[in-house]
Design a protein that fits this description.
By secondary structure, this protein is of the alpha/beta class. It is built from twelve helices and eight strands. It is globular and about 60 Å long.
Amino acid sequence: MKKYVIGIVGLGMIGNSTAVLSTMHGMKTVCYVRNPAKIPGYKASFDKMYDEMIAQGIMTKEQAEICATYLKYVGSYEEMAECEVIFEAIAEDLEQKKACYAEIERCCPKVKLIGSCSSSILPDALASAADKYADRIIVTHPFFPVHMVPYFELCASAKTAPGVLDYAKEVLAALDRKPSTLKKPNPGFIGNYLQFALWAAALKLVEDGVCDPKDIDNCLNYSFCPRYSSIGIFDHFDNGGYKLNITTCNSVFPILPRYEEAPASIREKAESEDAWGAKSPTKRGFYDWNGVDMVEYQKKVNAPYWRFINWEFPTEPCK
């Protein structure tokens, strides 16, 4: 499998996790850091993700140390000149992205793909923020943790050059990812569009007094959600046939919610100082998070995804 020189701009959760993914595949990974004082914190986050894999028995400490040799922090875009692929994972702010693309255009002559990890800005807007590299900017939206969740969704703009999407698929295949490609832009792309459609329906059931949040989570945990970790929804309904399906569609579709904005139950929690979720001062949202062991909770969040880390790690340090 071809090795690429990967650049990453924006070392939040997504950027750091992407660096873990690329270094685990023995790919030179150059991370731009605007403020060098933050490097120790970034490295601590990077190391923690590897420590979790060591604790899971997925790799040894020695293997993790070899992978870490493929990581390099730099303080200028000029030092990213060898990068063929750059993942842009900075804030969802078009002006900041525009400044980033200008620096990449100025300093990185070998770049064939700029993959924006944007979860909300559509690709045509991203391309409009660039100049000579507008034809190689696409959305490459992952889910966190990027090194564990293999799914990416790709979306090109009207300016995207022929071959760029195929090149992105080659890069992601080399990183053992499972991308889906949108034929045209869509708010929420695929993953969040589907996830928030389910979220809207769940909120409506609670607001209408049909059931409590725990009842919905119980349904998701023990009914259809586990099925979709091994087959798809189109698999499932094709297999079942459409005589019953159309009857249920005709019964349920007319009452599915169509919110024009976040419903009252969310707005009230977001605007409250003491009820906006697990990270609020009172640790309350729909649930009471007081006394919850958040380390154990995070283990439950990650548990379904460890099985996807199943490739060979580099055996030699980066040269």
